[in-house]
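Table S2 (continued). Query chain:
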Amino acid sequence: MVDIRERRTKRRGTTFLLVVAAIAFVLAALTRLLGIDGTRHMVATTALTPYLTAAGVVLAVLALLLRRWAVGTVTSLLAVVLVAAVAPRAFPDSRPVGVGRDVTVMSANLLVGKAEAEAVVAAVKAHRVDVLAVQELTPAMVRDFERAGLDDVLPYRHFLDEPGGSGSGIASRYPLSPRTLTPPSTLRQAGALVDLPGEEDLEVVSVHPLPPVVEAGPESWQRDLAGLPERELDEPVRVLAGDFNATLDHVGLRRLLSSGYVDAADEVGAGLHPTWPSGGALWPPPVAIDHVLVDGRCPVDSFAVVDVPGSDHRAVVSRFVVPAR
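Corresponding output:
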């Protein structure tokens, strides 16, 4: 009789733990699936969707093995939906045929000017970068870039450097002219029209919305993301490159993709490669918040993440084709 009671107690305890875990998973899954960016904690949870998806699969299998059918069924259904949303990022999409000019764009968050300018310039040379978008650009960092020889490879620039983390800029191999492509934002987001050889032009925005996890909440982040320009067919090809402080699971970024952009990493099967924090840190869990969003008319050939000593972000580099007019 004692053994039976002990087994029942253990069974109830196991069921309780599974139910608690299932409730947590269901709430996190619904936050992502319903596109709820309500509080900074919910936004942070959504950023962890790939990890939560893996945890949900494990939880579903465990519940089914233990014959907790209700828990197993609910978690299985939600896990399958999340897998369908997340797994394709690890596989390349079919590349459309495109004729035009190859362009390579790189974006780097410089951690309030602490990044090593020599490393950034070395990456620009190694990847034959045509356009560089930078965030958290300080006046001291501009001087570091000059000493490191950035002007030798990217002689044209539009820099909005400021002390602290609000500055940004664009440097280019080709002539450029400043353009106001976003409404006033919490952090500076430089925009420019790059005059490519031939008839093609390229609009570029150095993206950097305020992080959503600040104590004030995600309202500024949501407003900054909403202010990013949508793709327009009657305008030059447009690229949004930078630190979005958002993953492909956040509704603000998904809204931009639905307007006609493609995520370069997702296109080539690198959509799960994390960009922050760099350096192999396990906490917070690494996530992909730096992106190159390319006009959907541009076939994407490659995407890479690059370590930048001194910064807590990895740089992102993408090569794509700007179609001939």
